[in-house]
Design goal:
heterodimer, A: mainly alpha, two-stranded antiparallel sheet, about 70% helix, about 5% strand, B: about 550 residues, 22 helices
Chain lengths: ~550, ~550
C-alpha cells in the first residue's frame, strides 16, 4: 500500500509512532502546569494561564513524568506487538512525490519492537531513581527528586525512541541519517545525565565527541554516494550499484565507519566502555541493546540491501574480507579486554563489543553466500539475517537485565567495582540468581535465550559454509567455505568469555559483602519488576523459541534479499 | 506419606506431559519420572529454600533432606522396575538404532529439534546407576551443612545426568550436557574446600570450552547430513537433530567402500567431537581439571562426579562419533589406544607420588578411564562390552572411594595420607570400608572391577599382542599405590597409638550411621556385580553385538 505523507492512511499506519509524539508533547506540557496567572496589561485582571509558576500538587509530583513516559512507551509497544501478532501488518510505503521516505514492514516493525522494549525496560527501571542533586541526611522524596529533571530524562528517552523508530522505518539514507542523529543526540545527553559524578559528565563529552566525528564521517560518505548516484533512495542505490565507480566503494567505507561506531565495532569501540561506565546503568543498557540494534539496521541496509556483491562491482566484494577481519578483531578484542576489566559495567561494555563481532561475522556469511562461492538456495541468507535479529531481540532480555541489576546496586552506591557485587546472592538470593542467569545467558549456556541466539548465529554461518555440497554423501573438509573459520573463532571467543561471566557468579555467591553493603538491597519495585520481566524472557525465549524465530524469519523475508 | 504424595505428583505430571504430544498414548516412563520430576522438584525446593534466612534454613534442612531422599527413590524404583519388567514388558534385546520406551515430542520445529528420549543397552545401565547413586549419595552425606540447598542440588544433578543418557536428539543431548555443569559448579563453589573458587571455575571453563568445540562439530554435522521430509526435519532448515535419523543415514551410507560424508570430513568431525568427550572423560593430557575439582568438591559432589559424570564422556563417544564415523575410528585407533595407555600409566604413576588421599583417588580415576579407552580402541566386541562394564563398575566403586575419603576428611579433618596412622584402632568400620573399596578398585577377583579389567586385557591381546605387558604392569602399579596408601593409613606406623595432630588431642570417632548405611549399600552392590556380572553384562553384550553389526558391519561376540 502506498500513501502520501499526512493522508488518512498515514495516520492509521503510524498510530504507534504518533502515540510516542503525543506522549512527548504531553511530557513537555503537563509537568509545567502550575498556578501562573496572566495579567492583562494596564489592568489588574489576572487570567489563570496555568503554564509555569508554582506547580499543582498533581503535576509537580516527581513520579508523574516517569509514569507518563512509561505509559506512552507501553501503549506504543503494545500496539505494535498486537499488530504483529494479529498478522494484520501490511506493508505500507510513504511517498512524497517520487521519493519513498518510510516503509512499515515486518523488518521495521521488528526493530521498533526491540527499541521500544529496551527503552520501556530502562524507563521502568528509572521510575524513581534519579535524584535531583546530591543529598545528605533524611529528606523527603519531593526534595530528593525534582520533577523537572525527571521530565527531562523521559523527554530524552522518548526522543531516542522516536529517532530509532525513524531509522528502522526509513527507506532513504537521508531520512535514516536524520533519525540516527535524533536518537544519537538524545543518547549523548542521556549518557551525561548522571551529572553528580565526574565520570558521568566526562563520559558524556567523550561519547559526544567521538560519536559526532563518526557521524560526520558517515555523512561525508553519504554525500559522496549522492554525488555518485544522484539519489539516496535505497531502491535507486541498489539498482544502480553495479554501475558505481570506485567512489561508491570509498563512500561505502566511510558510511560503515558511522554505523560501526553505533554497533561499537573495533576499531571504533573506544568510546563505548567509557560511555557505559559513566552512564546510569539503565541508560547503558539501552546503549548496549537498542543503540546497537540501530547501528545494525544501518549495516544491514547498506551492506545487504544496497551493496550485496551479487549486484555490486568486484570492488565492493572487498567489504566481505574487511568485515570478516573486523569481526574477528572485534570479538577477540572485546573478550580479551573484558577479561582484564574489574568494573562490571566496563566488562559488560566489552562483552557487548564482542557480541557486535559475532553479528558482523554473520553479516560476512551473508556476503559469502551471495558472492557465488557457495551454491545455496536463497533462504540461507534469510536464515542468517533471522539469526541476527533473534540475537538482537534476546539481548534486550539478558544484557539489559544485567545492566538493570547493576542499576539496582547503584541505588545504594556505585556499581563500578566488582566488589560491589560481592555476596549479592547472599543478600538477595533472587536478584543474585537472576544476575547469574543473565551471565550464563551471555556466555551461551543452554537452555537459556543466549544459547539459542548464539546457536542460531553459528548454525547459520556453518550452513552457509557448507551450502548444498552434500553430493553422494562425500565431501572434503577443504570444500567448506572459509566463513566456517569465523564460526570457529566465535566458539573460541565464547569459550574465553566464560572466564569473566563466571567470575561475576563466583563473586556473588562466594564473597562476603563489602563494608556498607550488609543491609538488604533497596526495594525499588519498578526496577525489580523490569528485572523479573527480563529474567522470564531469558528463560522462556530459550525454552520455546519457535514463535520468535518465526517472527524473525518474517522480518528477514521482508528485506527481499534474494 | 511423603512417598505417597510424591507418587501422586509424578502421576499428575505424567498425565499432563504426554497430552502435549500428539499421537501415541503409551505411558512415557522416561520424560517425567526419570528426568523432569527430579529437576522440577529440586528447582522448586531450591527456589523455596534459598529465600529463607539462615536460621530458618537450619530448621528446614531436615524435612527437605527427607523429602529429597524420598523424591530420589522414585526414579530408582522406576528404573529398577523397568529392568525387572514389573511395570511393563520392556524388550531390551534391541537391534542397532532401536530404543526401548521411545517418546518424541516436537520442540523447536523450525530447526528440527524434538524432545526425543529412549534407552538401549548402552544407556540403561548408566541411567540405573545414576538413579541408584543419587539416593546413596544423599544418605552418605546426610549431615552436610546447609542441607536445605545441598541435597536438592544433588537431586537436580541426577535429573540432568539422566537427561544426558536418555536424550536421542543432539540438541537435547547438548542441553543436558551443559545443564549438568551448573549444579556441580555450585556444589564445588559453595561446599568445597579451601581453593574451591579456583577449582569450580577451572572445572566449568575447562569442560565448557571442550564442549563448545564439540557443539561446532555437531552443527557442522547437522548441516552436512542429507535433507529430508518428515516431522523430525526442521521446517526452515530441512535438517534434523534426531540421532536415530542420523544413525540410520550414516549406517546406510557406510557400506563397503562408501564412507558417510567422505573420509576427510569424517576425520575432522570425529576429532572435534572427541575433544569434547575426552576432556569430560578425562584423558591425559586433558585431565588437569579433575584432580582440582575432586579435591575441592564436597563428598557428594565427588561421588556423582566420579561415579556418573566422567562416564558421560565415554557414553558420548560410543553414542555419537563412533556410531556415525566408524572409519574415522579405524584411522584414529592407534592414537586413541596411545591416549588410553598414557592415561593409564600417567594416572597410576602420579598416584604413587600423592600425599593427599583424595588427589590419589582422583588420579586413579584417570587411570581407570584409560582402561575404557583401551577397550574402545581394541575394536573387539568384548572390548566394548568391557568398556561398558568398566563404566558401570567404576560407577559403583569410585563413589565408594570418595565416600571413604569424605568420611576420612569428616572425622580426621585432614586429607594427608601420612597424618593418620593406625586408623584401624580408632575407626574400625572406616578401615574396613577403606580396605574393601581399595581392593575393589585395584581389581580383586569377585569384585566388580576385576571383570572389566580382565575383559579389556582379553580384547587387547588380539589387536596389540605383547603390548599387553604395559597395561598388565600398570595394574601392578595400581596395586602398589593402593596397598602402600593403605599401609600408611590403616596400620600403625612410627608414633604408635597417637591420634593424629589435626584432631588436637581428641579421640578420633568412627563413622556415623548414615555413612555406614551408604557405604554398605555400595559395598553390597560391588560384590553382587562382581559375582554376578551377567546381570548387567547380558544387556551390554546384546548391545555390543547389535552395535558391531550396525556400525562395523561385522558379527559380535
Amino acid at each position: 500500500m502506498e500513501t502520501e505523507v499526512f493522508s488518512t492512511e498515514f495516520w492509521q499506519a503510524f498510530a504507534p509512532e504518533m502515540v510516542l509524539v503525543v506522549g512527548l508533547v504531553l511530557l513537555f506540557i503537563i509537568p509545567n502546569l502550575g498556578e501562573a496567572k496572566f495579567r492583562v496589561p494596564l489592568t489588574k485582571v489576572r487570567i489563570p494561564w496555568l503554564f509555569g509558576g508554582r506547580r499543582f500538587k498533581s503535576t509537580g509530583s516527581p513520579a508523574l513524568p516517569g509514569m507518563l513516559g512509561t505509559a506512552t512507551l507501553f501503549v506504543a509497544l503494545g500496539m505494535m506487538v498486537i499488530e504483529t501478532i494479529d498478522g494484520g501488518l501490511s506493508t505500507t510505503t510513504v511517498t512524497s512525490g517520487d521519493v519513498t521516505l518510510l516503509q512499515i514492514d515486518a523488518f521495521s516493525r521488528f526493530f521498533e519492537i526491540i527499541f521500544l522494549a529496551a527503552i520501556l525496560m530502562a524507563s521502568m527501571a528509572s521510575l524513581d531513581r534519579v535524584p535531583a542533586h546530591t543529598f545528605k541526611g533524611n529528606k523527603s522524596l519531593e526534595e530528593m527528586y525534582d520533577n523537572r529533571r525527571q521530565a527531562d530524562l523521559y523527554i530524552l528517552m522518548l526522543t531516542t525512541a522516536l529517532g530509532m523508530c525513524m531509522v528502522a522505518l526509513s527507506q532513504d539514507l537521508f531520512v535514516l541519517f536524520v533519525g540516527l542523529e535524533l536518537a544519537s543526540l538524545a543518547t549523548y545527553i542521556l549518557v551525561a545525565f548522571h551529572k553528580e559524578s565526574k565520570a558521568g559528565a566526562e563520559s558524556g563529552v567523550k561519547y559526544f565527541i567521538v560519536g559526532s566525528v563518526a557521524s560526520g564521517i558517515g555523512l561525508y560518505g553519504l554525500s559522496l554516494l549522492y554525488l555518485e548516484f544522484g539519489s539516496l533512495q535505497l531502491s535507486t542505490l541498489s539498482a544502480n550499484w553495479a554501475d558505481g565507480s570506485i567512489l561508491a566503494t570509498i563512500a561505502l567505507g566511510l558510511v560503515l565507519v558511522g554505523f560501526g561506531f553505533k554497533v561499537s565495532a573495533a576499531p571504533f569501540h573506544f568510546a563505548a566502555p567509557d560511555a557505559y561506565a559513566g552512564a546510569n546503568s539503565p541508560i547503558a543498557g539501552v546503549l548496549a541493546t537498542a543503540s546497537k540494534a540501530m547501528g545494525m539496521i544501518g549495516l544491514i541496509r547498506i551492506l545487504l540491501v544496497i551493496a550485496l556483491p551479487d549486484t555490486g562491482t568486484d570492488g565492493s566484494a572487498i567489504w566481505i574480507y574487511t568485515l570478516a577481519t573486523l569481526s574477528v578483531v572485534t570479538m577477540t578484542w572485546g573478550n580479551i579486554a573484558a577479561l582484564g576489566s574489574t568494573n562490571p559495567k566496563r566488562m559488560l561494555a566489552y562483552s557487548s563489543v564482542a557480541h557486535a563481532g559475532y553479528m558482523m561475522a554473520a553479516l560476512t556469511a551473508v556476503g559469502a553466500w551471495h558472492w557465488g562461492h557457495v551454491e545455496a538456495p536463497a533462504d540461507y541468507a534469510e536464515a542468517i539475517v533471522a539469526a541476527i535479529l533473534f540475537h538482537l531481540f534476546v539481548l534486550v532480555a539478558f544484557k539489559l537485565g544485567a545492566f538493570l541489576v547493576l542499576g539496582l546496586l547503584e541505588m545504594e552506591g556505585g556499581a563500578s567495582r566488582l566488589s560491589a557485587l560481592s555476596g549479592l546472592a547472599r543478600r538477595d538470593p533472587l536478584i543474585g540468581t537472576s544476575m547469574f542467569i543473565f551471565m550464563l545467558a551471555l556466555a551461551g549456556v543452554p537452555p537459556l535465550a543466549g544459547f539459542m541466539s548464539k546457536f542460531l548465529v553459528i548454525a547459520s554461518i556453518v550452513s552457509t559454509s557448507v551450502g548444498d555440497q552434500w553430493v553422494n554423501g562425500s565431501i572434503s573438509f577443504s570444500d567448506l567455505h572459509w566463513v566456517w573459520w569465523l564460526a570457529l573463532a566465535m566458539f573460541i571467543n565464547s569459550a574465553i568469555s566464560v572466564f569473566y561471566y563466571l567470575r561475576i557468579g563466583v563473586v556473588m555467591f562466594l564473597d562476603i559483602p563489602e563494608e556498607g553493603r550488609r543491609k538488604p538491597l533497596p526495594y525499588g519495585a519498578s526496577i525489580r519488576m523490569a528485572i523479573w520481566i527480563c529474567l522470564v524472557a531469558t528463560i522462556i525465549l530459550g525454552l520455546s523459541a519457535d514463535t520468535l524465530i518465526d517472527m524473525c524469519y518474517r522480518a528477514a523475508e521482508s528485506l527481499k534479499l534474494a | 506419606m511423603l512417598v505417597g504424595g510424591l507418587l501422586v505428583v509424578v502421576a499428575g505430571l505424567m498425565a499432563f506431559f504426554p497430552s502435549l504430544g500428539d499421537s501415541d498414548t503409551t505411558v512415557d516412563w522416561i520424560s517425567i519420572p526419570l528426568v523432569g520430576f527430579p529437576i522440577i522438584i529440586s528447582a522448586i525446593l531450591l527456589a523455596f529454600a534459598s529465600q529463607e534466612s539462615r536460621s530458618r534454613k537450619e530448621i528446614l534442612a531436615a524435612p527437605i533432606r527427607l523429602f529429597t531422599l524420598c523424591a530420589s527413590l522414585i526414579p530408582l524404583a522406576i528404573s529398577t522396575a523397568l529392568f525387572f519388567d514389573w511395570l511393563i514388558m520392556v524388550d531390551w534385546d534391541l537391534m542397532y538404532n532401536e530404543y526401548a520406551l521411545q517418546k518424541e515430542y516436537l520442540w523447536i520445529e523450525s530447526i528440527g529439534v524434538s524432545w526425543h528420549v529412549g534407552m538401549d543397552g548402552l544407556s540403561f545401565p548408566m541411567v540405573w546407576l545414576t538413579t541408584f547413586l543419587v539416593p546413596v549419595t544423599i544418605i552418605m552425606t546426610w549431615n552436610e551443612k546447609d542441607g536445605a540447598t545441598y541435597h536438592p542440588l544433588l537431586l537436580m544433578m541426577g535429573g540432568a545426568l539422566i537427561g544426558v543418557f536418555v536424550a536421542l536428539d543432539l540438541f537435547l543431548f547438548y542441553v543436558f550436557w551443559e545443564l549438568t555443569l551448573i549444579p556441580m559448579f555450585f556444589l564445588i563453589l559453595k561446599w568445597g574446600g579451601k581453593d574451591r573458587r579456583y577449582a569450580a571455575q577451572k572445572f566449568f571453563i575447562y569442560t565448557f570450552c571442550a564442549s563448545v568445540i564439540m557443539l561446532l562439530g555437531l552443527i557442522t554435522l547437522y548441516f552436512l547430513q542429507p535433507e529430508g521430509n518428515g516431522s523430525q526435519y526442521g521446517t526452515v532448515t530441512g535438517r534434523t537433530f534426531d540421532m536415530t535419523v542420523l544413525f540410520s543415514n550414516a549406517s546406510a551410507y557406510n557400506m563397503g567402500d562408501n564412507v558417510f560424508l567422505g573420509k576427510d570430513m569424517q576425520y575432522v568431525l570425529f576429532a572435534m567431537l572427541m575433544i569434547g568427550f575426552l576432556v569430560k572423560l578425562p584423558a591425559v593430557p586433558f585431565h588437569t581439571w579433575l584432580p582440582d575439582a575432586h579435591v575441592q568438591a564436597p563428598t557428594g559432589g565427588s561421588m556423582l562426579l566420579a561415579g556418573v559424570m566422567l562416564k558421560m564422556g565415554a557414553y558420548g563417544m560410543l553414542r555419537i562419533p563412533i556410531a556415525i564415523f566408524p572409519d574415522a575410528l579405524i584411522f584414529y585407533q592407534d592414537i586413541i589406544m596411545a591416549i588410553g595407555l598414557i592415561s593409564l600409566v600417567w594416572g597410576a604413576v602420579v598416584c604413587l607420588g600423592q600425599t593427599n588421599l583424595k588427589r590419589m583417588v582422583a588420579y586413579s580415576s584417570v587411570s581407570h578411564m584409560g582402561v575404557i579407552l583401551l577397550g574402545i580402541a581394541s575394536m573387539q566386541p568384548i572390548g566394548y562390552a568391557a568398556a561398558l562394564f568398566m563404566m558401570f563398575a567404576h560407577g559403583i566403586i569410585s563413589p565408594m572411594l570418595f565416600a571413604v575419603c569424605g568420611a576420612f576428611k569428616h572425622h580426621y579433618h585432614s586429607m594427608e595420607i601420612g597424618s593418620m596412622r593406625g586408623m584401624a584402632r580408632w575407626s574400625p568400620f572406616l578401615a574396613v570400608y577403606m580396605m574393601f573399596a581399595w581392593m575393589a578398585s585395584l581389581g580383586l577377583p569377585l569384585l566388580a572391577g576385576f571383570v572389566a579389567e580382565l575383559m579389556v586385557l582379553i580384547a587387547y591381546w588380539p589387536e596389540y599382542g605383547w603390548w599387553i605387558l604395559l597395561p598388565g604392569f600398570v595394574l601392578a602399579i595400581t596395586a602398589a599405590y593402593y596397598l602402600w596408601s593403605m599401609q600408611r593409613t590403616i596400620f600403625e606406623g612410627g608414633d604408635e597409638g597417637q591420634p593424629p595432630e589435626s584432631l588436637n588431642g581428641e579421640t578420633p570417632p568412627d563413622i556415623t550411621l548414615s555413612e555406614n548405611i551408604g557405604m554398605i549399600i555400595l559395598a553390597i552392590f560391588t560384590v553382587i556385580f562382581g559375582i554376578f556380572p551377567f546381570i548387567a553384562l547380558g544387556m551390554m553384550d546384546e548391545w555390543t553385538v547389535a552395535f558391531f553389526e550396525g556400525v562395523f558391519k561385522k558379527g559380535g561376540i
